[in-house]
Design goal:
Blueprint (H helix, E strand, L loop, with lengths): L5 H8 L7 H19 L8 E7 L5 E3 L5 E10 L7 E2 L6 E6 L2 E6 L8 E8 L8 H18 L8 E6 L6 E5 L7 H5 L7
Antiparallel strand pairs: 1-7, 2-6, 3-4, 3-7, 5-6, 8-9
Helix pairs in contact: 1-3, 2-3
Length: 192
């Protein structure tokens, strides 16, 4: 699932032709990438994530995302040369959320001498994408489009000036991305 689509942005901008489709796709990808980097996690629930962790000595492992949807697989091994063993009894491990932090609970415990491989799905589903995040991504893409459509090769440059001799140059960069920082900050993953 895409967080926002070209159709979403075109409808918002009231664009009816396909002249800028390729450019809009590039902008959407850039905006979503920026938002994910700003939030320190993937926001789009399209792929599984695999992480490797050492045992914690408890029954809980901290997961590196605040948007975990499900645990697909849990594997363990004692030595790096051992093959991974899959935990097939899915009734003894579960996803638990405490406030905005997700943990994997394993009733057998995560032994400190073992390594664990966890495969999980994270990100927003179509049905769970918050309205403010959707609107922020769409509006940010539209704003960048409006400010750069006439000069596609100058995205992010607000102004340039040169001295009479052509030696000194002053470039002022647009702060477009920073305008949406407040929206993205609500979805930022904070590790514990």
């Amino acid at each position: 699932m895409a967080l926002i689509t070209k159709t979403d942005v075109k409808d918002f901008l009231k664009i009816t032709n396909s002249d800028f489709d390729s450019f809009l796709t590039t902008l959407i990808d850039s905006v979503v990438s920026y938002a994910e980097k700003n939030c320190y996690q993937r926001l789009d629930a399209t792929n599984e994530t695999t992480i490797y962790k050492k045992g914690s000595g408890t029954q809980y492992l901290l997961l590196p995302s605040s948007l975990v949807n499900s645990i697909s697989h849990l594997y363990y091994r004692q030595l790096p040369t051992d093959s991974w063993t899959e935990e097939t009894d899915t009734t003894i491990f579960a996803l638990e959320q405490i406030e905005n932090v997700f943990y994997l609970y394993y009733s057998n415990g995560f032994f400190q001498s073992y390594s664990y491989k966890v495969i999980f799905n994270s990100g927003f589903l179509t049905s769970t994408l918050p309205k403010d995040l959707y609107e922020g991504l769409r509006e940010m893409t539209a704003q960048i489009f409006r400010e750069s459509a006439q000069s596609k090769d100058r995205i992010g440059i607000k102004s340039e000036s040169k001295s009479n001799e052509g030696v000194n140059m002053n470039t002022v960069f647009d702060k477009t991305f920073e305008r949406y920082e407040n929206i993205f900050s609500h979805y930022r993953y904070m590790s514990v």
